[in-house]
Amino acid sequence: MNGVITGREVAAHFRIIWREFGFRCLLRCVGACLARRRRTFLEIAWESRRA
User: Fold this and answer.
1) Which of 1, 5, 9, 11 has minimal Cβ neighbours within 10 Å of its Cβ?
2) pLDDT in tens for each of the 51 residues of the chain?
3) CA 43 to CA 5: how far, in whole Å?
4) Domain ranges across the chain
5) Which letter does DSSP use for residue 4 in this model?
6) Is 3 in a helix, a strand, or coil?
């Protein structure tokens, strides 16, 4: 297990990510998956909270 977020995980937990972390975090997750950047969900969530 390497902790990198995947498109399958984002699609499966779409509503939870939106409800708990906000639309900005959801967009960053989708963007990271589409760009195929190797990022963890915690990196994305932390970045969204600081912005």
Assistant:
1) 1
2) 568 888 999 999 999 999 999 999 999 999 999 998 888 999 998 887 766
3) 10
4) 7-50
5) B
6) coil
